Amino acid sequence: MDSRQVQPGNLFFALPGVNTDGHAYIPQAVDRGAAGIVGEKMIAGLPVPYIQTDNARELLGYVSAAFFGFPARNLTVIGVTGTDGKTTTSNLLFQILIHAGIHAGIISTVNAVIGNDTLDTGLHVTTPEAPDVQRYLARMESAGITHVILEATSHGLAQHRVTGCEFDIAVATNITHEHLDFHKTYESYRHAKSMLFRMLDATTEKMRGNPRLAVLNRDDSSYDYLKSVSGGNQRTYSLNEPADFRAENVCYTPAGLEFLICTEKYRQPVRCNLAGLYNVSNCLAAFAAAVDGVGISPADAAEAIVSVRTIPGRMEPINLGQDFIAVVDFAHTPNALLRALETSRQMTKGRVIALFGSAGLRDRQKRRLMAEVSQKFADISILTAEDPRTESLTDILADMASAAKKAGGREDESYFRVPDRREAIRMAVKMASPGDIVICCGKGHEQSMCFGTTEYPWDDRTALKAALSEYLGLSGPSMPTLPTTE
Length: 486
Known about the structure:
Blueprint: E1 11-13, H1 26-31, E2 36-39, E3 50-52, H2 56-67, E4 76-81, H3 86-99, E5 104-107, E6 111-114, E7 117-120, H4 130-142, E8 147-151, H5 154-158, E9 169-172, H6 180-183, H7 186-198, E10 213-217, H8 223-229, E11 234-238, E12 245-253, E13 256-262, E14 267-272, H9 277-294, H10 298-307, E15 316-317, E16 325-329, H11 334-347, E17 352-356, H12 365-377, E18 380-383, H13 393-406, E19 415-417, H14 421-431, E20 437-441, E21 448-451, E22 454-457, H15 460-472
């Protein structure tokens, strides 16, 4: 896919992209020894064979699977998609499988876990490219893994990165406002998500069997649409509606959550160390896929859920002995921010101090929506940098501040603009009173922040620990560095 990485004998895929067109790099690929070229444009006169196709990315998915020997055909593959909750649901499901004694692997937007090896899958949240996905699957097959959980983002589905993955079970968390910069409309975004469920019917028969099961969120607005495209084998889960798996008697405890998962056959008590009502929904999704999809007992699934302490960058507490709560969360969509702030409100009787930004070159509508959400549900909002890329950070923050003001906010009272994320975190820590909660949103587990076209090392958890150490006069990590705010 990258002409700079071509080696003699390789097949080069010239992929049309958002910012660059791979067809322009065909000469470089040939010079580096490519044995053949795949593209979408009419091209003649090349010294090597040229294959023209309507969709080079789709063909790349299938060729990648073939190149690695179609590893998914010897695995049970569980796909998890949705706007929010994918990583949490995937990790819950992974732990349920491991607890049940199943040799499981996972490919998520955080990492890939193959036996004792944990591999980084990239700087930002997206599904790895098709050759990498198939390489991971082949390694898992060779390692004796039988079941794989694969996080499928809308980009990963629309760009055919998971084409050829032979899904047996598909799980939906929710489909809310996100990535409209890429998909243009909500309907297009929803269609991309639905590709996971449409793929179920195309899965080949496997020796282990394949249930072709769709697990759907009865509470989400996407339910009717996904139900119509998902085939006949479906299970539903819900907090509020009649469903195959229902949560009842939800109780908030200092340790997290307690509730019952109820079906027509049983009422299974569940304890969960994760905070927030939305995590009840994530537990239901993982539980349904594991029990009715894989065949794990309800008791074993419940026992595994309580063993999960935290999910990286998801309502992850940072405690250095301060007299207020400090949390890092990945919430980077309006819906996720709303849920994170609702959960924060449940965790404290003090003030909610929320810190977040909105990424450059991405869905611009989110800026207004997230500022409005925070103005309504947080006591103090600190607007700051979050991957501004080549956009003006000043302009991004101005858009957010304007929305906060229209929602009734008062600048330098209920909301603040602090372009430097380091200083924003320091400010949030200094503002906190005993019993308050400081929640840093938007970056979560991510390990970099993009200014211009450069990725700079950055981890919100390290930055928050550094700010707390400075505030408390303790030894601790140094504050990560960032470039100028513009």
